[in-house]
Amino acid sequence: ACGEGDGGGEPGGAGGEKPYVALVSKGFQHQFWQAVKQGADDAAAELDVEVTFEGPETETEVEKQLTMLQTALDKNPDAIGYAALDSEASIPMMTDAESRGIPVIAFDSGVESEVPVTTVSTDNLAASAEAAKHMAELVGSGKIAIIGHDQTSQTGQQRVEGFTQYIEENAPEIEIVDTQYAAGDQLKSADAAKAILQAHPDLKGIYGTNEGSAIGVVKAVQETGKSGKLTVIGFDSGKAQTDAIRDGLMAGAITQDPIKMGYETVKAAVAAINGEEVEPVIDSGFYWYDKTNIDDPEIAAVLYE
Amino acid sequence: MGISKSFPGVRALDDVHIDLRHGEVLALVGENGAGKSTLMKLLAGIYQPDAGTMELEGAPMSPAGPRQANELGISVIHQEFHLMPDLTVAQNIFIGREPRRASLIRDDELERRAGLLFERLGIPLDPRQPVSHLSVAGQQMVEIAKALSFDARVLIMDEPTAALTETEVATLFRIVRDFVSPRTGVIYVSHRMEEVKEISDRITVLRDGHYVDTMPTAETATRQVIAAMVGRQLEVGVRPDPAAPDPAEREVVLSVRGLTTRKLLKDVSFDLHRGEILGFAGLMGAGRTEVARAIIGADRSTGVVEVKGKRVAVRNPADAVRNGIGYLSEDRKRYGLLLDQDVVRNVMLSSLPGMTRAGFVRDLDGRRVARQMVDQLAIRTPSVTQTTKNLSGGNQQKVVLAKWLVRDCDVLIVDEPTRGIDVGAKDEIYGLLTSLAAQGKSIIVISSELPEVLRLADRIVVMCEGRITGTLANADATQHDIMELATRFGADHLITTGDAE
Amino acid sequence: MTTKTTATKRTPTRFGNRQQLQQILAFAGLVVIFGFFSFASPYFLDWANVKGILLATAVTGIMALGATFVIATGGIDLSVGTGMTLCSVMTGVFLANLGLPLVVGVLGGLAVGALIGLLNGLNVSYLRLPPFIATLAMMMVAQGLSLVISGTKPIYFSDVAGFDELAGGELIPGLPNAVLIFFAAAAIAGVVLSKTLTGRYALSIGSNEEATAISGVDVRRWKVVIYVVAGLFTGLAGVVMASRLNSAQPGLGLGYELEAIAAVVIGGTSLRGGKATILGTVIGALIMATLTNGLRIMSIPQEWQKVAVGIVIVLAVYADILRRGKEA
Amino acid sequence: MTTKTTATKRTPTRFGNRQQLQQILAFAGLVVIFGFFSFASPYFLDWANVKGILLATAVTGIMALGATFVIATGGIDLSVGTGMTLCSVMTGVFLANLGLPLVVGVLGGLAVGALIGLLNGLNVSYLRLPPFIATLAMMMVAQGLSLVISGTKPIYFSDVAGFDELAGGELIPGLPNAVLIFFAAAAIAGVVLSKTLTGRYALSIGSNEEATAISGVDVRRWKVVIYVVAGLFTGLAGVVMASRLNSAQPGLGLGYELEAIAAVVIGGTSLRGGKATILGTVIGALIMATLTNGLRIMSIPQEWQKVAVGIVIVLAVYADILRRGKEA
Ligand SMILES: Nc1ncnc2c1ncn2[C@@H]1O[C@H](COP(=O)(O)OP(=O)(O)OP(=O)(O)O)[C@@H](O)[C@H]1O
Ligand SMILES: Nc1ncnc2c1ncn2[C@@H]1O[C@H](COP(=O)(O)OP(=O)(O)OP(=O)(O)O)[C@@H](O)[C@H]1O
Ligand SMILES: [Mg+2]
Ligand SMILES: [Mg+2]
Question: Membrane-spanning residues where (chain B) (predicted)?
Fold first, then answer.
């Protein structure tokens, strides 16, 4: 990615003076993506660049996202941040970006292409294995279930896969009896979790793979009056989830560091615009948090309301 | 063994037989709901008989559907229109028979054929016009043209003239006479006895789903036919002596001044007095319906409408009804009925707010009123909760009339009020309207049947081309006078019969 | 006057009875589905599970009640889903942000629903927009406004005492209030549809709008009223949703409109208008929720669940058509 | 024979001409929107961006073409979105998994679309299911099957030489094939709608189904044909989508049906049936894509974009209604 070519390297963007970084994410109305946006905005203020942020409604809308990416390219930004819903579908556009001389920073998940100068992401497989590790410790043995948030996206699949793999390899006495998906919708996740609880009255734990799923599970446990009898493990944060952990309804959850993810993405983009070297992979990290460490400054900093 | 056909709760036809001879016009008459249309639908393959057989030129015939009936040479003009409003006239006529080249429809050829057909029949319609732009009479003409576009041996016409004025009826009769040949025949269903007299060779009478008799037209008096239809002697009423004092001297209830619409009406002005029946006569398209629609605010117009001396702003029919003006449309299917709802709901529709208590609709009242109306108008229906779609044409018309009788407006505008209603009931309705006027209601009767206008009206307004060409007191009016006023604008006849040249 | 009244003697059944019979029979599909799952899974008939099904029906069910009115006129309401969300969010603003009293907040939520309905109604009546377009636009506007107003963050009711009891409490022990509210709303909707001018005119307009207008009904005004009534149900759904989640989730709602409309249509209401029953809508909503629940209880893989639901809907509606065909 | 025909005299313009005029005027809304954005953003009128808009229109546009036929009959097709996905996935199975020749795979994709249409048509015609229900069920079944068949993972065409060129190549330099295919499909759809029996009967059925049947048209059979035609367009959309993404994404598709139907309705086709124009549908699809693109180019925050799109749709359709009202 270098600044040669017609217009691509010139300071473009809406303002015309500040460098302009367009971020195309996987979503925009979920709390997680809003936190990424916040990190990006922080960096933008700090580094004096202009940032826009958008993403499709759900994490299945690969084509919508490509159209967004296309529009973003047409706005002639100085750099692009891109969280690919499909790691291959955007390859032609990566080439397009390269030919226009616009550097690309991948975030959240990678792209099957040499074009992105770096990838800022959480290792979802490792993160969900961490969730599994805690589940195994807390449950010991018996039946557990998973409420997934998305059956087809890479993230959605990895959050289930990493968890399942860990249980299979490290906790043979635990059985995953069911995995249902409910689109991250709290109400639908609650209904799904209740149905599973009904079918498996001796269930000992449920893992929800994102904020909506996890809160839905908590709701289900509350509504079936099984509070305390069941180990609930969640993912991401948000007020409802942190409250549930404080109240003991949820044993704990994995949090990524979305703010850092957004921040690092923009920081890397600015570095690329200025022609500086960037690390090929930037790990934005993840943490396990529960009642005991929820108020640690290190954790509190990465949790969003 | 005759033909039988039942519907839930109704035995529409019970052991009925008719025979149509080569080269004749057979009239089929009977009261509303006698089963005429049902019989015609059996011949057309729309219904299958429960029992009985049909033969065509000696060979057994049982059309499984309308198309098969067409192929057998049976062509039908149904009482209810079967038109596609969004398609053009030509597209409607040739639906299912589109000329094609390389599987593409040739609309130019379609229009040419339709044009030729209209020329042959003397029907002044534009083949390229969408049917939704046509008046009821225009739609009826399309149906007629469509039926005649087939190479038919048997032509069935179920009340084809109900929406037509005399000039078009003359055209139609010429068409029928042209059609009849030694290898063809016509079955003609009508409630208009003069027409039956004029056009038919024999008359078959149905009553209550049963066969009554077949009589040669030339040797039968109308009185006898009517007696056979209703099963007793019936006095056909004459216009009662004009009420005294002359209604035209009472106070004006509705005054219309300078009513003008962009499309047709020019400066229409008239007064309607209390207790008066005002007739509106004119040819098809003269604008009588337009006057009514303009008054009730269904169409945009300029001009002044005063009710009891006070100027009123009528922006929509709801305003009109609020001011005591009700309008019964000539197009009962489109503007009259809730076809998929029952008699009770139809009858209650205009009067609903008056039939509530504490905001709740009193359905018992509605049912009582509906029963009353069913009795009063002799509506033939298995129950007041029958869906109106399943009623015979004439009975549907009675339901619409009942709706307005229940509403009890001071001014009632009735547009072709007896369309499709049998002779007996017609007289009942005439009596009813006359007694309403006697009670002090004011009524405007728009009708294409001059005898009807002459029978009912105190005064007659004649229209031509959107203008009022004259107002006649009934005593002075003759059919001839009216026709002259109705064709005031010279050679501009809407439909001219072939021999007029 | 003639006295020929062969008519009345030809009525074998009283219509009233027949209609009741029909509606009772409409349960059949639901009963078969229930029977099947009870047989297939020992857990299905537990009261806890039945309660779960009812609870899952409540929110979509309330939306479907409102949609029934609009569909009765021959229209369609695509704004029920995100409209419901906007009502939740506004309830959140009233209660959690502004700290208004509970009753005021709840009424406020309903009022927002009525306002959504009012705008839909005005657009349909006076701008003569097709209902599909008017409510599609409203669907987008409501979705956008929910996000703008909430700042794309959930609004929590944790500090609003008693709000979660609204839907989650059990006035009748064992039966969550959400379900109670749904049934009460259904009863009201039933009366409104069949016994008030609003309902009657909705059906008349759906049956034949032009004839209704010529009969002296101010169709435009009544259409607005009908959409406002639908909006009130949307508002109620929003409040119940917010109470159930004890938070207003601005991102939710899209897709609920299809579920609600599906419930209405499965219940036998015709999208062409003129025919609608509230009992049908309730049953339609129950069928949808029961199917989803039953298949989950049986641990059918998610992807097959979709296929199964699709097929069962076809069968259920076809059975209903056969049954009605026989009676007619 | 008289030649004075009052009826003709009152029809000033030939129907054909007027309709053409109307369609040309329908561009107005689009032109205004285009004009506004060109003024508002310097990047908007770049060929690259216009190309982007056209590309974004292509897939939904092709689906909308098919939906136009169903809507012309007075029906609705909710299965275009996930049906399209199933066609992508099956194309993937044919080409990537089974390694069939390119042409066979593409025709196979279309055939799957036709099969979806066939099932919809049979359900609507012979089981007499309301189109809403039949296609809703198909929407679910297709979604489920896409996931089942693909094993919930995308199928990549990386090894299928030339497949991505299908949509991504540029036969006419500067214009992606996807756009070319869309325009070609629109031309074909236009001819089919206005010049073949399929189209004529679709409009006729939508205008008055009973009358069409009584006129001797085998309505049930033709409805099946019409749904199959719609299905073929769904299939084409699936192939183009797969080629554009160079992969079949099984999770995609839900929600596209609303966009497609919206494009049709914005284009002036009535959901009551009987009235439909292909040019309208194309314009409708372009309006939707242009709006979304323009607002993005202007960097309007995403939540406000929704609100703006909703309002502009109301305005555009209202302007269209006013214009048509004046002419009538
Ligand atoms: N589809 C139907 N379902 C139920 N009843 C029907 C149906 N069609 C007709 N009927 C009933 O059958 C009887 C005969 O109806 P039909 O239409 O043949 O009468 P008609 O002689 O044509 O009367 P009109 O002069 O009023 O047109 C009527 O009582 C009518 O209510
Ligand atoms: N809904 C309509 N749309 C368009 N044109 C119409 C409509 N109704 C009537 N017209 C046309 O307006 C003209 C005036 O018709 P109108 O109905 O007022 O005449 P009329 O005197 O009542 O005669 P009739 O009812 O016998 O046709 C006719 O030429 C008719 O074709
Ligand atoms: Mg009849
Ligand atoms: Mg008239």
Answer: none
φ, ψ at B384 (rounded to 5°): -75, -10
- Percent of chain A whose predicted confidence (pLDDT) is above 70: 95
Query: B221 CA to chain D: closest CA distance, Å?
Result: 35
Alpha-helix residue ranges (DSSP H) falling in chain C: 6-9, 15-40, 47-72, 80-92, 102-125, 131-150, 165-168, 177-195, 197-207, 209-214, 219-245, 256-266, 278-297, 302-327
Q: What is the pLDDT of residues C20-63, one digit of tens each?
A: 555 555 577 788 888 899 888 888 888 888 988 999 999 999 99
Domain boundaries, chain B: 3-230, 234-324+411-423+442-501, 334-408
DSSP symbols for chain A: --S-SSSSSS--TTTSSS-EEEEE-S-SSSHHHHHHHHHHHHHHHHHT-EEEEE--SSTT-HHHHHHHHHHHHHT--SEEEE--SSTTTTHHHHHHHHHTT--EEEEES--SSS--SEEEE--HHHHHHHHHHHHHHHH-SEEEEEEES-SSSHHHHHHHHHHHHHHHHH-TTEEEEEEEE-TT-HHHHHHHHHHHHHH-TT--EEEESSHHHHHHHHHHHHHTT-TTTSEEEEES--HHHHHHHHTTSS-EEEEE-HHHHHHHHHHHHHHHHTT----SEEE--EEEEETTTTTSHHHHTT---
CB C201 within 8 A of CB C72: no
Q: Which residues of A touch C303 (CB under 8 A)?
A: 151
Separation of alpha carbons A293 and C117, rounded Å: 48
Would you call B361 and C12 a contact, using CB atoms and an 8 Å cutoff?
no
- Looking at the DSSP bridge assignments, the partners of residue A53 are A23
Peptide bond into B245 cis (omega under 30): yes
D vs C contact (3+ beta-carbon pairs below 8 A): yes
Query: What ipTM was assigned to the predicted interfaces of this complex?
Result: 0.89
Tokens 């007996």 belong to residue: B424
- Among the atoms of ligand 1, which is closest to the Cα of residue B209? 14
- pTM to 2 decimals? 0.90
Domain ranges in chain D are 18-327
Which CATH number is associated with domain B234-324+411-423+442-501?
3.40.50.300
User: For each of chain D's 328 residues, which pLDDT tens digit applies?
Assistant: 333 333 333 333 334 445 555 555 557 778 888 889 999 888 888 888 898 899 989 999 999 999 999 999 999 999 999 999 999 999 999 999 999 999 999 999 999 999 999 999 999 999 999 999 999 999 999 999 999 999 988 999 989 999 999 998 999 998 999 999 999 999 999 999 999 999 999 999 999 999 999 998 999 999 999 999 999 999 999 999 999 989 999 988 999 999 999 999 998 898 889 999 999 999 999 999 999 899 988 888 888 999 999 998 898 888 878 877 654 4
Note the pLDDT of residue D22.
52
Q: How far apart are CA A25 and CA C39, in angstroms?
A: 46
Q: Which CATH fold topology does B3-230 show?
A: Rossmann fold (3.40.50)
Sign of CA dihedral B420, B423, B424, B427: positive
Distance B64 CA to ligand 3 centre (A): 21
65-124 of C, contacting A, C-beta below 8 A: none
Among B296, B341, B383, the residue with its CB nearest the CB of C11 is: B383
A132-148 tens-digit pLDDT:
999 999 999 999 999 99
Structural contact between residues C277 and C268, judged by C-beta atoms closer than 8 angstroms: yes
Let me know: does D114 contact C295? Beta carbons within 8 Å: no
Burial class (CB in 10 A: 0-12, 13-18, 19+), C67: buried
Asked if the Cβ–Cβ distance from C7 to B382 is below 8 Å, we say yes
Contact call for residues A103 and A272 (beta carbons, < 8 A): yes
